[in-house]
Amino acid sequence: MKLDKQSMLLYAVTDRSWLGDKTLADQVEETLKGGATFIQLREKELDFDAFVKEARAIKKLTDAYNIPFVINDAVDVALAVDADGVHVGQDDSDAGALREQLGDKIIGVSADTVELARKAEADGADYIGVGAIYSTATKTDAEVVAFETIAAICKAVTIPVVAIGGLNETNILSLTGTGVDGVALVSAIFSKKDIISATKALLSLSETMTKP
Fold it and tell me: What is the pLDDT of residue 96?
């Protein structure tokens, strides 16, 4: 799966908090219909078998839309379903070790300093996730990253950079000029009743934000 900066425009991170009577695959398909450019499956509670089953259902969708699909943290699940790659935090495996396991699959790494971002790229990461941009209920222990730091990270690396954390339709445009290639969103997509329309609007904002 080829990864480019356009893939970062609208990076959807799943969250089952708002499923209601839908399945997670239903919601993922809706955000894909709305124009999501990247899907990350994030699960903290599922056992391996349930995680794999869910990942396979979502991979069918991302394959059909030809959109990159990565698993958060769980390398074993990513390998089991032949996902396009993984995304890891600073407390997980480093990109160098992952590259040995994953071959040419996509590796995304979270980084909140220039030094960490440079190290991730040097170790073989394909993209950087920078955040939290704003405080967020999804990850309560994440510290907010200054806009100056975001811009410095974007200048310091050559791989794509996606911003994450507390971003939604009211503040995406505040990132204009930082150099980020797109936004990673959770509740701004999956908490909405009309996910397709919400995704379309968010994609438009991200496109505006990233224009030179």
Answer: 87
Q: Read off the pLDDT of residues 158-196 as tens digits, 9 standing for 90 and up.
A: 999 999 999 999 999 999 999 999 999 999 999 999 999
CA distance 18 to 64: 24
The single residue of 7, 93, 110, 206 carrying the catalytic annotation is 110
Place of tokens 């990850």: 139
Quote the tokens at residue 164: 């994450």
Per-residue pLDDT at 168: 97
3-state secondary structure of 134: coil
Which residues pair with residue 12 across a beta bridge?
A: 39, 185
Q: Exactly one of 22, 139, 187, 204 is catalytic; which is it?
A: 139
Residue that has been written with the tokens 């709305």 in this structure: 34
Report yes or no on whether pTM surpasses 0.90: yes
Is 139 part of the annotated catalytic residue set? yes
Residues with Cβ within 8 Å of 117's Cβ and at least 6 positions away in sequence, in order, are: 111, 128, 130, 153, 156, 157, 161
Q: Which helix (H) or strand (E) segment is 51 a member of? A: helix 48-65
Compute the distance between CA of residue 152 and CA of residue 147 in angstroms, rounded to an integer: 9
Instruction: Say if residue 1's pLDDT is above 70.
Output: no
Helix (H) or strand (E) holding 1, with range, is none
Beta bridge partners of 6: none
Query: 5, 16, 33, 42: which is the annotated catalytic residue?
Result: 42
When pLDDT is cut at 50, 70 and 90, the band that residue 134 belongs to is very high
